[in-house]
Design goal:
The chain has 295 residues and is α+β, with helices and mostly antiparallel strands. It is 25% helix and 10% strand. The protein has a two-stranded antiparallel ribbon with strand order 1-4.
């Protein structure tokens, strides 16, 4: 019986995998139908530069080699390993989850690797969001109240409402404004609202106003998503609060608690929600996406 020992490059490649199937491929000369494979088993004594190992010889199941230079695969179950010689094992590489194939061509070059990639792609492919230019979504940028009106109306598939004669419900949202149709639709469908007189005055606007060009906050957006999703309001028992900075007296308390209860939003690691912070564009996409897809 001809015996062929594995080259060192093969032996050092046998890394520890408990009861794993090891497949070794090597090139053999033509001859006998039986070949042998050596591997190390932890034990006493040893050689070939390894410490405290013993070697045992196992013969493979007969497999013919038709001609010189041809190769065959040999399979053996190896319960444990011992490093050979001074060879250094290759570093382990654990691949991350692959980026899913988007359902439509996505032009944005700045969202790969973003934690909310899936939400942005979903809303873009459903026509609910656009970029800040043809190839950028600008995930860290802010979103205005006018921009968000478009996102929430399109994202939730609201039925469009057009006022008769081009009238307007807000003094600062004229028929020529890009988000006019979306703001009017959201308002008449009961998911958007404007500011009170004091709020309008504070921003130099005439009541009733919507203030479409100011950034939308996390609290405002959460309230609008809860309204668009038609979630029944949820209030924690005993008046407790989930977030340290959203007490029961906060104007958005019920909306934020409802959204958290439904799994639509999360807070920050320090236990806050920061309702008065301007929301990022990627956060906006995620919250709207969760609202659209969470019954």
């Amino acid at each position: 019986m001809s015996k062929t020992r594995l080259a060192p490059t093969f032996r050092t490649a046998l890394l520890e995998v408990a009861a794993a199937l090891v497949v070794v491929s090597t090139t053999l000369a033509a001859g006998s139908a039986n070949y042998a494979i050596n591997w190390a088993q932890i034990g006493a004594g040893g050689s070939e530069g390894a410490q405290s190992v013993s070697y045992r010889l196992d013969t493979t199941i007969g497999q013919g080699i038709a001609g010189s230079g041809q190769s065959a695969n040999y399979h053996a179950y190896l319960g444990y390993r011992q490093a050979f010689g001074a060879a250094t094992p290759a570093p382990t590489f654990t691949p991350g989850p692959p980026t899913p194939t988007p359902p439509c061509p996505v032009p944005f070059v700045d969202i790969n690797g973003n934690v909310f990639y899936g939400a942005i792609v979903y809303l873009y492919c459903h026509g609910a969001v656009n970029g800040t230019d043809p190839t950028h979504y600008s995930p860290a940028g802010t979103s205005t109240r006018g921009q968000f009106a478009k996102v929430v109306v399109l994202g939730f598939g609201e039925t469009f409402y057009t006022p008769n004669g081009g009238t307007q419900d807000f003094t600062d949202v004229a028929p020529g404004y890009f988000a006019y149709l979306y703001i009017e639709t959201g308002f008449h469908n009961g998911i958007l609202s404007g500011f009170d007189q004091a709020g309008c005055t504070a921003h130099g606007a005439i009541y009733p106003c919507y203030l479409p060009n100011i950034p939308i906050t996390r609290g405002q957006l959460t309230k609008l998503v809860v309204g668009a999703a038609h979630y029944p309001y949820y209030t924690p028992t005993g008046g407790t609060q989930t977030f340290s900075d959203v007490p029961p007296t906060n104007v958005f308390f019920v909306s934020i608690e409802t959204a958290h209860y439904k799994g639509v939003i999360n807070g920050y690691p320090d236990g806050t929600f920061r309702p008065n912070n301007n929301i990022r564009r990627d956060e906006m996409a995620q919250i709207v996406y969760k609202g659209v897809t969470t019954p």
